[in-house]
Structures are given as structure tokens and as C-alpha cells.
Predict the structure of HTH araC/xylS-type domain-containing protein.
Amino acid sequence: MGIYMEKAAHDWTNDSVRIIATPSLVAKSTYFYVQEVGHFRTLPTYFTERQHLNSFLVVYTLAGKGYLRYRNHEYELRPHHVFFIDCHNYQFYNTDKNDLWEMAWVHFNGSSSRGYYEQFLKNGSPVISVDDNSPIPVIIDQLLEANRQNDVRTEPLSSKYLVDILTELLLATSPPQAAEAFLPAHIQKIISDLDKRFQEKISLDQLASQHAISKYHLLRECKKYTGYTPNEYLIHRRITYAKELLTYSDLTIAAIAHQTGVDNVSHFINLFKQRAEMTPLAYRKKWQRIT
């Protein structure tokens, strides 16, 4: 785990804001929760050096210039730059003495914070540049206001705002084409083909040949834009259809396996259990009672 270490020069203006929160047991077990949130206008000696803190940190640069040292790399932070780090790792950040750094920030934890962090880091850097009209600084202001009030709504609202920030960060690391057209035309055609033919046996070689694309490029492109390889997408589509049949039909498990394109019943049951966290029969008993 490591021993907590922090050195800092708390050098910021009198109108800077820092709110420390003490999350409830409910928040810790259920929500994303704020540990600290603030808006700093730094003064020339401002810095923080830290390691082994059980927290995640998002910092948005509003004005001026800052610097971040993290995971053996150094980054310059300018307006509209955001960094998202795991504070267990060593970090050092400070202001430029000639162009004083202004930032909005939040320390948080809980729920699936680490999962979001790991997804974000797949873009290769803890620092990204977002659009001038990004809602992230506004959402941090909303977090500040919610935690100033400190009433029964504060923790669920804080969790909502943190999810909004994390969602914006993940969307900002999506491929540019995805923001414009969701899926490029050639990927749309492939996904449409898989949706129509998911009950058939489809090999990667066949799919690549039919769409005149190299199978290696096909793998990369599908994963990049859909989050699935073609085979994973087929399985996802088959399991979704199986859920529909289990809920709204009286077909046997073997017949449903066949209908979804999986000939081996044991294999179908294993695939279903891995993704639905219960057997097909348990799923049927649960959801047929509900519906």
C-alpha cells in the first residue's frame, strides 16, 4: 500500500475556495463521493507533491499555466487542459511563477472510480485538452455549491455530478469521427451485417472478405468504435436475443441456444453465465416472474 506522503505550499489567493467533505457510510458503499473540491487562484510558490493517497483527482485549468509530473512524464497545463490521476501514484504539480495557474478541481472516490480511471488512461495520457465549451468547469462549480449546502441532497447530487464529469472525460477521449457520426460508414455496414446474421456461423475471414477489409484492420476498427471485437459483438447480440426468448417464450434452453446460433448447449450456458452472472434457467425464473 505504501506510506502516505505529502508536501505542499498552500499558496493561493484569499478568494480561492476549498471544501473538505466527510462522506457518510452510505456514500462510501454506494456512491461516487467528494473528498475535497475547490477553485484555486494560485500564488507563485504554490505546489503539491504527494503519494499513496486513496483518492482520484480531476483538475481543470481555467487560466494561466501549471505543470504536472506523473508516472515519469511531465506535462504543461494550459487553459482547457484537464488531468485525471490516481493519487496512489507519485504526483507533483505546481504553478508557473510568471503565468499564475487558476484551476477547478475535485478529489473523489467510491463506486467504480478506478474503472473510469483505467478506461480514461487507455488514451495514453493523464492530460487531455477539451473544447472551450466543455461543461466540466461548470459541473465542478455545481459540486462546490452542492457541498456548501451540505444537506440530504448533497451526496446523491455529488455522485451525479461526478458521473457527469467522468462521462465527459471519456467522451472527450473518443475518436473524433465517433462524435460526428457515431460510427464510420464501413463500421456501420459491418455492425448491420452482424445484427442481421448473428444466428449464422460467421468467421472473421468471411466478414473481412465480404467487406473488403483486412481482418487485422477490421479487429482494430471494431474494437475502437464499438468497444467489441466482431466475435465479442456477435456473442453480445446472441446473449441479448437469448434474454428476450427466455423471458417471452417457452422454448427449451437447447432450442434457444440453437436459435441464437450456438449449437453446443453447454457452451451457450457458459457464455450466458459469464455475461448475465446467472444461468439461462435462473434468468428465466427471475424475469418471467417479474414480467
